[in-house]
Structures are given as C-alpha cells and as structure tokens.
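Hello,

Our lab assistant flagged a job as stuck in the queue for most of the afternoon. It eventually completed. Since we weren't sure the result was trustworthy after the delay, we are filing this so someone can double-check. Below is the sequence as submitted and the structure that was eventually returned. Let us know if re-running is recommended.
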Amino acid sequence: MGEECMYHGVINVYKEPGFTSHDVVAKLRGILKQKKIGHTGTLDPAACGVLPVCLGQGTRIADMLTEKKKTYEAVLLLGQETDTQDTTGEVLARCPVNVSEEEVRRTAASFIGPQKQVPPMYSALKVEGKKLYELARAGKEVERPARDIQIDELTMNWIKLPRVGMTVTCSKGTYIRTLCYDLGKALGCGGCMEKLTRTRVERFLIQDSLTLSQIETLRDENRVEEIILPIEAIFDGPRAIANEAGNKKLINGNPVAAEDFAFILREDGQAEPLAPEALPKTGLVRVYSADRKFLGLYEYEERRRFWKPKKMFPT
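-- returned structure --
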C-alpha cells in the first residue's frame, strides 16, 4: 500500500482470549494491508479487552499511550499459587481459605496508593538481555528489583470465596497477576488470577472496542476511517493555529513563541483570535499550520520562554 493510502491514528481493538498482543498487530496488518502498526501495551494471551493499536504516524505516540492509567476487571482465586501467578500455570501450593469477607476488603484497601511490586518471572521484562519468561521456561529464577507502581482503585465487586471479583485502576507497569499473588500472600492463603479483562486505557473504553472480525467487516464496507481516532483527538490540549511567521518555524519543527500563533481552534471548528498571554504554559499544546493542518504536540520551556516540539507528525 502506498503512503498516500496509509491509515494514521489509533483503533480501539478488543483483544480476544487466546491471542497475544503481537497476534493482534500481525492480523491487523493483514486486514488493513499496512505494515506500520504497533500496540500500546501487552495483554496476556488469556486476558481480553481494550488494546489500543496505533496506525501509521500514530505509532509515534505509542509510548505516550503506554504511560496512561488502565482499568481492569479481574477474578482472584484464593487458596492456590502457581508459577505464572494465574490459573494457566503449574500449581505450586494449595491452602485452605479461612478468611472472612471483611478481611479480604480490609487487606485489599491496604494496597491502594503507591506500592512496590516485584514483576513476575513469567513476563516479557528483560534481565541482562534475556526475557524473564524465557528464563522461567528454562527453570531459572533470577532476582527482580521491585518497581514503583500506583493503585488508584481496588474495589471488591463481589466476594464468593474462594473467588473475588474486583476492579483495579493502576499505573503503567502494574501486573494484575502479581497483585492477585500479593493479595493472597497478605491474606495468608495464597492466590492467583483466574480471569482478566482490561476495560479502559485512558479514553479508550471496552464498550467502544471492536474485534478483528468487526474491523474486517468495516474494511470490506470501506468504513475503516470511521473507527480510527485521529492523533490530534487523543490529546486534550488547546489547538493553536500559527500565523505566517510561526508557520515557517512549525513546518521545520522549530520552537515557537506565543506571538507565533494567531488563533485558537474551538471544538466547534471555529477559530477565534488568540491573545499571546492566553496560551497555557502547562500541559501540551496541539499546533496547526496556518492552513489548519495538524503538525504536532508542543510543550512550554520556562527557561527559554518558548514552546518546543514534543512529537511531530510530518505528513
């Protein structure tokens, strides 16, 4: 497919159980006949749910989406520990579950906030160039440094011991399998993850996600553009349109000052004059050429008092 036919933006894919995140990307490349595609954070093969997939120039923001908070629905099975920390693995220990619902709720509440979490051996993280899961499959276990994570929400939706249904909203780098394992340890009976569904990645919600077969159908109906979120729509910063002087700087990816912008583009598509002091100095600014083409994301540098490019999207 030629560059002029390439899709750019993000599709909210529903990853079905049994597929790896890599499988989804490979299949989508075949469906869209496009090589430049990448996902924004791995989901375990047994898990399902939201997997934002970046297309074309959208692959330039994959790292920014990976940083976003995520929400999951999970089922914790108490009384059992496995080598993978979920029920797909080999059982290492079983223990009677003699805890009350109140103990489960109280212990779970203690995990809310900043935490230290040791990544599981069965993960794609690398230690000295080797993926942990490759070492684990070879029967080796290596020391993994604990990482800083943040649990913003840990809600018990239902408790039918030995199973617990919960909602988790957390930071990048959080392993829900490990959270289940750690909860089981804290309760003294062990635990592992039985089921996992990712319901949200930033603005991408599970109710809006599409299976690969649904995307394929839309492709056959020439409706793929309808389901692609443009790069500029993923961010919330103000939309600033350059004046003639600023236009030359922006097109070359140079820093710009407030006086290089002429208008703010409102949500209704109308442009209104921009007073230089009105441009916010925190967060990202979405910048547009004088003819209203989206060029990239800029951020303010206080020391030099100008906006500098964070991500550019050349057409």
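-- support follow-up --
The delay was a queue issue, not a problem with the job. The result is valid. The chain has a mean pLDDT of 90. Helices lie at 21-32, 62-66, 101-109, 132-137, 176-187, 212-220, 244-251.
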